[in-house]
Amino acid sequence: xxxxxxxxxxAARSKSQYNFDYYFVGDEGSLTSYGDAFDYCxxxxxLEAFRQWLQSEYSTLEGLNAKWKTSYADWKDVVPLTTxxxxxxxxxxxxxxxxxxxxxxxxxAYKTVRDGVTKGDKEGHIAVSGTQGTAAWNGCDWxxxxxxxxxxxxxxxxxxxxxxxxxxxxxxxxxxxxxYGSKGIAVxxxxxxxxxxxxxxxxxxxxxxxxxxxxxxSDSARDMGKAFKALKxxxxxxxxxxxxxxxxxxxxxxxxxxxxxxxxxxPAEGKEANQIxxxxxxxxxxxxxxxxxxxxxxxxxxxxxxxxxxxxSGKYRVFIMPSSVAVSxxxxxxxxxxxxxxxxxxxxxxxxVMDDHCAWAxxxxxxxxxxxxxxxxxxxxxxxxxxxxxxxxxxxxxxQKTGIKGAVTVSAAGAAMGLDAAALEGIEVSEAGISGVxxxxxxxxxxxxxxxxxxxxxxxxxxxxxxMLFDVYPTLRRAGFGGANYRALLSAxxxxxxxxxxxxxxxxxxxPLTQAVVARYKFGDSEILAVVKxxxxxxxxxxxxxxTQYQDKDLGTVATQDITIRLPGTAYVNDVRSGAxxxxxxxxxxxILIGGALVLGLSPxxxxxxVTGPEKAVLGEHPAFTISCxxxxxxxxxxxxxxxxxxxxxxxxxxxxxxxxxxxxxLPSALNDKSGQYTLKVTDVVTGASAExxxxxx
Length: 698
Prior knowledge:
It is a single chain. By secondary structure, the protein is an alpha/beta fold. Helix content is about 30%, strand content about 25%. An eight-stranded mixed β-sheet has the order 8-7-9-10-16-15-14-12. Helix 1 runs parallel beside helix 5 (about 95-120) and helix 8 runs parallel beside helix 10. The longest helix has 28 residues, at about 95-120.
């Protein structure tokens, strides 16, 4: 580690004069090779450090032996189990603790690099690229890593954009990769989707994809450029950077222990096993996608944050546990407090069957909180499997194993909550043998004695135990935007916590706009509404390394959709991108490009802007202009200069902030600029107020 620190310190010291945004310290890195399942590391130095860490975790050898089901007489003899040994024995803690330690070790390696960089350059940042989706063996626990790494050039797989948005340090530059020859509205949609996830620093791969052999720009570069121009020259990117992204009181559990549990209990080829998670990644993405499809936003909340009391902060009304099968005792206590104090907890099947060491909790860590009874945890199994595509060499797909199916019945309590059996048809029960104790059954499916949904009132709050899995939702969604039954169910549960869209975005038929992401931001006294409509013709292919490439099925078709936006109150509305002012209203009728983005500024009052500066200057001078805004608050302002012939000077365009109603902008003229009268146009990005000034350069 000392050598690594010394090398990075020397490199940073020699380059600090260049004022880099960050020092790039790795691409597509992981503990193994991408997500490969390999029990790294068993070196003697690692095992010695592992034993020291175990002593801090367990304090006594007796405590470790009790958890590990071992009989070690000396710490020096302690060794973890391999994946195969853990699966064969059904004893997972000696394997899971090793995985946790290796994730800590991986993070500490980056900390060593960062410490070396900051010793050489006190303002230095480190950045990683090609970030991998989290797996049990690759070390990519993004909560832990985000506490150390400053900036990211992230891939999007595994909900990473939302993870970095939730966990990154304040002021982090979260970038992503685009290009790869992607073109059409598809690549523009990918750029806009990244932007409304606070992923605002695009990087293009690579020159051959955007520059033709004759040095003209490719179709891919042309199409990417349209989105880049909007983000830069319309001031939208600066607006997003300076605004606070809002969420709707929803927290989603990030559980690395559950990642371990899902991996170690996965049925091995040719062997039977108790299936407690079918596909954790798909389950988490199912909940996330369903939340967004309801026009809502959320934050990921990690295990350590929960243990440290974040759920007690009053920031969240709902806590969702997607396949959270492994929960620490400290997490369980915090979740109980959250419910007792009025929060709503929603989970799917088999929550809390293990603790954070992946040791079975036979009575469940949270069964009593959810008010249910189940078989001993180590014997529980979930039914069904995820839908899959037919293999090329497969004449007919093998028979699909499913959960418990049948007609949906809603209890009187479920009906009082707004559940409708017809809207929920097709939902499958995932586990037999579940029954309510203190919880009230709301739904049942077919003739199964196991209910599909239970509600338990605890203190001032309540819990919902959904005996089903949302891992099917991404597949249903891809098939003609299916999954309406799961959206209806989640909407009804969220309504019990008073969670619904603060701003309604409706299609022409008056129903909520589908296949769109809605994000809200706070900027001073104003709000920003961003709507990105999915490109329904988009095809995305993600490779083993995490790279996603986008293509259009039909590049020639451009379509728009009429929409109505209902605001919670009257606001002065401005279309940030077009500059169209819509006046004071609580209802906006407009349209959105399929695959495109709509950005509206919602202000409590009208505003004005003025700009003054010298009437003349000499070519090569840098005359300054003063901008004043009313009300005298913080305002994002785009500043565009135009040449004497009216040409837009993109090199001189800049987005600036007026603080307390005042700001400045400089025209950095060059000696070889054309002489004549130049025009400066300043526009308040949020309100659309604009003004002009003229200057003659001679």
